[in-house]
Amino acid sequence: xxELGIKHHVLTIDNATFSKAITLNEATYSIGRHSSNNIVxxxxxxxxxxxxxxxxxxxxxxxxxxxxxxxxLQGNRSRNGIIINEKKCLVHELKHGDVIKxxxxxxxxxxxxxxxxxxxxxxxxxxxxxxxxxxxxDYSKQTLINKETLIASEDEIPNQVEKLDxxxxxxxxSVADLSPQSIIEIDLHGNITFLNSQALNxxxxxxxxxxxxxxxEELTSKVTxxxxxxxxxxxxxxxxxxxxxxxxxxxxxxxxxxxxxxxxKSIEGxxxxxxxxxxxxxxxxxEGIILxxxxxxxxxxxxxxxxxILDYSQEELTSISIDNLIFDKxxxxxxLSDIVAKETLxxxxxxxxxKNRDIVTVSLYIQAIEHQDxxxxxLLIINENNSxxxxxxxxxxxxxxxxxxxxxxxxxxxxxxxxxxxxxxxAVISIKINEFPVIKNSLNIELSNLLLASFSERxxxxxxxxxxxxxxxxxxxxxxxxxxxxxxxxxxxSIRILDSLxxxxxxxxxxxxxxxxxxxxxxPQDGDNIELLLKNADIALSRIKNTxxxxxxxxxxxxxxxxxxxxxxxxxxxxxxxxxxxVLYYQPQVDVNNGNIxxxxxxLRWQHPELGLVSPSSFLTIAEQTGLIISIGEWVIRTACxxxxxxxxxxxxxxxxxxxxxxxxxxxxxxxxxxxEILDETQLEPQLxxxxxxxxxxxxDIEYSRGILSQLQDIGLHISIDDxxxxxxxxxxxxxxxxxxxxxxxxxxxxxxxxxQDLAIVSAMVVLGKGFNLRIVAEGVETEExxxxxxxxxxxxxxxxxxxxxxxxxxxxxxxxxxxxxTELLPSxxxxxxx
Length: 835
What we know:
By secondary structure, the chain is an alpha+beta fold. The protein folds into five domains: 8-141, Tumour Suppressor Smad4 (Sandwich), CATH 2.60.200; 179-260, PAS domain (Beta-Lactamase), CATH 3.30.450.20; 287-385, Beta-Lactamase; 405-571, Reverse transcriptase/Diguanylate cyclase domain (Alpha-Beta Plaits), CATH 3.30.70; 577-816, TIM Barrel (Alpha-Beta Barrel). 35% of the residues lie in helices and 28% in strands. α16 (530-542) links the parallel β28 and β29 (552-554). The two termini are 53 Å apart.
């Protein structure tokens, strides 16, 4: 075999006089007498379209092969047929050494070899011609991902080829490799049954991810016999695809055709933003719009506001140059060149000439755009000295608290860049006032503008300081939330907006109630550019029916469900303390040398009557974001201290109890005072309480951490650093932090037996901890092998499921008297911990 392990497929055609070999690379070859064939045979005894070669990829055998069909793919057979190894065949998978007889005087030999140079060198003058180059892509170089996926494999074809249906034959052979589109077939259980070469090349991890891949996600549930077609657009690795899926009842399969539409989406997005921008600004009847051809400076289009400001007709303006309107031509011409070159927005006051040559001073917003594929200048005119200045001021009141659309687009673009650089989320909320044309018709202009201004004020009252509101169109406002940590924040803002609109608007003699719909898009899930985020927010808004009770919706259906769950959890969480739904569980920390329990960690759980036992990972983030963690954290410390004191009163040996502090708790300057009050209240000795803080929290502000931890140690508390080795950047910083216990992160413990690097890190941390005279505890110990490795590294205090699951207080009370001097906990507890 050659160095690359590549097999060459060679077809040598000869008769008594001539011989010629051709290396096969392409997906299909037509063979026959007519000159349109890929391989032309110069023999009158051969049919015009005698045979067809088809390449078929076989993932099972990590190879590909060629099949030969009698005639062409339209079902036309040859006159004489094809004879393989002295046997007449309709279709045959070629094997090394097969002899193909096209006619009495013309035959061919098929060979698979590591090196085709010898065969090609020995072939003589040709009786054939090939319209294909042999240097095309070598498909044998493909890395075939999943050997359970069949690409028209041999198992799909019966031994008796004559029984094979023509349509099925074409499905398994010609369509797959001939199509420029990716083709995927799955059965109704989601198993991939068919991929063509394009699909393999385009989606290399498809067979590995299977149903988790976006192309296959929810496909079996959405395409059924009742709903037999699905068309959807997907974003995969920064490319956009349109997937068209059909249900094939005769095969009980789902076939998908996938088209790459990335270029189309880019063009569509650019057109959308340009059209939206022009449409939006054009509707503001107090602002003038002029489109100017950059090359000739000729005015292309104007709106009526320009005509009103300059006393021209539209026909007159589109027949002259922008030079005719500018009083100081030199300044603006220079700025136009800079704007086009740098693609920036320019804002400045200019003097324009009216038709009667009077001068009017305006604020001019200038932006370079493309119009009909030509560089074009957009000029937005704000008339500061209009004779109807009072009317203009009234009509602009609605914009006094919101930026102009152009400015908003700049802010959105900057926010996207910032989110991308810092791996953050942002939200765009599109708000539409229901039935606004009807409302507007019932009011005069003054009251309409007053209503919109009041509406804007109420919306702004529901926003945070960093959020931006823009009046996008007549009945449409848009909100930018430039930095959010979770999608629920957008849902909360939407709810606050609805609350702010609950009261009627009172406008002189009118009293109006305003209803709205809101669509939400999230960066980067719903779009990574201005066009997609605005468009998808509008799409989400359009999905809300006028008769629906729903007033806001995310573009992503999954986000709708996620937000509803999170908001429901938050609602329940606000009541959990009052309803006494929180409970503490306790997990022992064991000295493996003598079996003694050296300490106990208190772990928070939420027992909700409807949701059951809720995992901390499901609610602690919400508690942190809402600030509820402060009161919840105090309850945890108080309850743990009270329980530890109770064990002491009952005659059990004194134990150190460890309680986790959240980042927000740790940042409270009054934390030492709160802890001292709890100790006084529960009468627990300070040395029996240990506060556990994560390394990453401590590292956020070294000076603050050193100060607050010193105060806590002065009270007599012990300090433990959790998730050690993941948060500290240097030993120099570590030396500045006062603490007593070092906890080895469970992530390192889990991989001790199969990752030498993790073992090296744990070993180094143990040595480091002993050098600092610290108590060392390994958390997350689950196997006997981990225990022995840790023991060999002289780490003897451990906690984890191997010893005990977290226990209720009553179970700990029963357990403690039996563990002193035992090398392991009671079997019943360890057995339960493994369940």
